TrEMBL record, chains A, B, C, D:
The lineage of its organism: Bacteria, Bacillati, Actinomycetota, Actinomycetes, Kitasatosporales. Mg(2+) binds at E103. It is an enzyme of class 2 (transferase). Pfam families: PFK. Catalyzes the phosphorylation of D-fructose 6-phosphate to fructose 1,6-bisphosphate, the first committing step of glycolysis. This is 6-phosphofructokinase. Homodimer or homotetramer.
Length: 341, 341, 341, 341
């Protein structure tokens, strides 16, 4: 059996641990050979491969990033892209393909699967917003980085009588903001699932000062204020930071400062949340995802992806990954709301 | 409503986060008053209380330990112990008691509950061996400490051609060993659920050297060799380190060295696994346990304890905690076994 | 002996360790009483004090921030400010004042000392740019935070073929950039001591891509390009982030992206560098500064500040702190330059 | 120019950073070729070499251990050992040798240098006990690991009313114990430079309990009690843990428990102090040592080793390393003594 492996989409701590789990399990237990495809879908599209054997995965467990590289190349948008992938897989005598990625990467995987390619998926999203799995690897590491930043801002906030705004990842779902905000003891948590009223945020901030303590506001980079508060000409930048002058966190910081008169500092965590050594939990989860992806290949369960339920690793249809995303339930958001005051 | 709170049993990162969650939720949303009992069951037994209000819980979220103190005092073994507790609760006009603790602490809670005391439990075990909940707080922190230690031993192992043995917590269940061992890339993982054969461990160790790499062995402190390998006169010490000369990890290290002739170093992590700032996950889980314990009090659901299922916090009967413990399934142990080789 | 203590200027990890060192040494060895002044010079100016005894400093060693608070209030710019301070010190029966702060705080201390107030200084600057001492506390912690961020960016850079720009503290001196840049293996390090040519930076960046690796650029927030490269209307923001649209790091990131066509991400570390638990080195240094400040008071060596030379703590004239700042020697900058290529 | 490189003695965080600094500086600035010798002096003794070029050192900066391996092989104790080394160096056409190691490794280097071999040394000792340099790399990382352990023990100590003993490295000098003990807020610090009286330690411990707080005792593994307290038959184990039943820390823990009746736990940090990613300071120092070792080779300054004075890297005679070791001055030990009480 020859199995191709690729990693697509954004960087995410734990990708190397998945790759290592796949290769060690496959080689040791089933004698598989592996073909590494470089830079996500670009690899099978252009036939760009790399050696993927036991020595290649030595020592990569604690390392962030992916030895296979990644990209956002979308073969579905390229004339004849999917056909070229199928031809290249055949040319490399690849019997099955393990795709590690998020919504987009697994969406392509799903289409190839429907067209008869033997595919097993491994879900990946730092934002933890994928249906069909309790947790995804990378999320715990990102929450840890964000929580450490809140811890650090606390001491500055205490000494300086200043508002601190921290922008964390969370394009469509506020999981990182909610977990890190609760773990770090933030006073206000703003998420994409619930539009916020800048005036109300300012009132919270002032209430905190009244009880003699500096407030910390955590905001997901996909959060938005209610209609009309964000001026047209000041459109915040998108996920890739390219369209506007400010991120939503920077905008909020300026609004708080001008509306309350309180000195406000904003920190945008950015890519530091996606890099570095994965946490113990992420390495554990990623390794087990890798092992179980090979088991799915061995069982010929094409068109599935691995998923986690408590301590169990299950297989669910690939389509689960591309259905609607998993957002923070308003019930949970309200539950943690006790700490806004 | 006046609510007593106590923490019993061993130390565990996240206890303060539970206490803070309880007090902030109870005071802000329901106007409760709280009575802190000192040192586990010793507090209500001797009527030893401490102030437990909003200022008392300020800043304790990221701190290990418990501001209430803890002990292993067992009122069930003291003549009239339970009666004295009931009298003291009445004397302090306490309407309900929130007990944070493991098997023993919640066992007493269960008995008092049966005798009509209004009790809500919060499960606590660093070993993660409690039924009725996916995870308990403190476990993730301990796994993190153990994984970091394995990371550190790896580099020494690589440079020095030596066997490294790491003893981690796990009296009755090997969860920490399995999680940290997999996350850290250990070569052998030994747990209480499965007796090990020292000869087989030595063969693994030698096989690792054959592929030119130094082996790392992770052993839970409750793991034991098969019948006959542990000499009578060399009985390993118990959990509290007092009965024998060696811990099981130290014994194993000496056996490996004498049987294989390979220099072997043993590190016993001990209490460093139970202290320090809780991880982001543990703070999140502990805070939500605290909030939901207050909700259980508010709902009058006596005799229950809070528990976690994915992102949901549920209530299960207190008795769940004292039923048989949750051990590592052999299926999981075998799954991760690929990395033994 | 009654001794006042104050902390002025920006936040800095280790302030609490100094305070604790002062109080424990003073109370235990010399029976001193202490008066804590709140928020830097605002405290003695307005007579705002707080209790400062052994219980007040319990547990603060590992904590960032300052229990005394801090501010940038400048009594020299307030009509009769210095006189009011002297009156308040007399009113509180304070025999000597220990001032913990940077250039500005110690500049005021120097003037009060010249006017006969018994003053001992403790130097503080996260940027490590103070003359008269090998190191200042807080610097090692900031370098650690910046280095960890570079480590994290490396893995993203490797996976994604992108330029990463990291802006770190360093208003007038590039010590943090040089230390963290070297420790983290950055490819370009830009500091205030040497104006940089954007074109040359772009050529370095392109050269890195040519050897198949993504470049990391570390820039101190006080670094500037050579004359004419920074457009008038795009003036970068000042230290407090308020005058312009971009920080220098953000500006550089945009320039690199537009000039090289390579996707570029910028992370501004900001206040996370000043907060959080101080590193072991900073706690050690800060504690010894505190102990030795009390020895200086005991010896009546007014007008001096404590300073570090290897393992020795010395006393130097307060004026040392306010002389020209300690910048990175061009020789050292050139030495580490090997790693630019 | 062909330059050999070897690393000898115990493991130490930063060795890889030195190697990387040497190779990048040598190749980029002077076009040197390098020969890596494996496992300390065993390499040149047996002619065992490995490739050492730019790709070989890629990514090793943040990694502990040494890619060259290390050993305690002593060619001076092998018949004709030094002659064989000289022959092998000539055979490999090695013009100069950079030796990274401690007292023993540099002692051999010194002898070879006297016999005409072109040698430059880089000092290495985790214990920081080498003369002729302010600091050695690896020390800061070890102090960080020990301080984090003390932080963790504090929370357990607070909750449990127990004595905690922590044994850290320090065979002949107590630098790690003093730095980590002060940084962590230990109550008693015991070092090899000053024999301790077990009775006095017990009195300190009891005094701590009297002020309602659990004591933490830090002891260097080379510390010893005053004459007569250590029973003959209970001789503590040596540095390599092989001669006796207990380490000195374990012995002390048992003594405290039996003499005071207070429950006592001992943690022996062991090899976790020598492994793992080096701290930012150690990476900076190690990289600069590497760069400057190449400068010393370029300048033909044979028989010297690099050394650190504040921010300057100097060259001192190799013999400095093998003169008497640098111990903790009693004055410093007394200074920090304020915190014993």
């Amino acid at each position: 059996m020859r199995v191709g492996v690729l990693t697509g989409g954004g960087d995410c701590p734990g990708l190397n641990a998945v790759i290592r789990g796949i290769v060690r399990k496959g080689v040791q237990d089933y004698g598989y050979e592996f073909v590494g495809y470089r830079d996500g879908w670009r690899g099978p599209l252009e036939g760009d491969t790399t050696v993927l054997d036991i020595p290649a995965v030595r020592g990569i467990l604690p390392r962030g990033g992916t030895i296979l590289g990644t990209s956002r190349v979308n073969p579905a948008q390229i004339e004849g892209g999917l056909e070229r992938i199928k031809r290249n897989l055949a040319h490399h005598m690849v019997d099955a393909l393990i795709c590690i990625g998020g919504e987009y990467t697994l969406g392509i995987a799903q289409r190839l699967s429907e067209e008869g390619v033997n595919i097993v998926g491994v879900p990946k999203t730092t934002d933890n917003d994928l249906n069909g799995t309790d947790f995804t690897f990378g999320f715990d590491t990102a929450v840890g980085v964000a929580t450490e930043a809140i811890d650090r801002l606390h001491t500055t906030a205490e000494s300086h009588h200043r508002v601190q705004v921290l922008e964390v990842m969370g394009r469509h779902a506020g999981w990182i903001a909610v977990h890190a905000g609760l773990a770090g003891g933030a006073n206000v948590i703003l998420i994409p699932e619930q539009k916020f009223d800048v005036e109300q945020v300012c009132r919270y901030v002032e209430r905190r000062f009244a009880v003699n303590y500096s407030p910390i506001v955590v905001i997901a980079d996909g959060a938005l204020p209610v209609e009309g508060q964000l001026p047209e000409e000041d459109g915040t930048r998108d996920f890739f930071g390219r369209t506007g002058s400010y991120s939503i966190g920077e905008w909020l910081g300026k609004e708080i400062e001008s509306r309350t008169g309180k000195e406000t500092r904003t920190t945008v965590l950015g890519h530091t949340q996606r890099g570095g050594s994965p946490s113990a939990f992420d390495r554990y989860l990623a390794t087990r995802f890798g092992i179980n992806a090979v088991e799915a290949v061995h069982a010929g369960e094409w068109g599935t992806m691995v998923s986690m339920r408590a301590e169990e690793i299950l297989r669910v249809p690939l389509a689960e990954a591309t259905k609607e995303i998993k957002t923070v339930p308003l019930e949970l958001y309200r539950e943690v709301g006790v700490f806004f005051g």
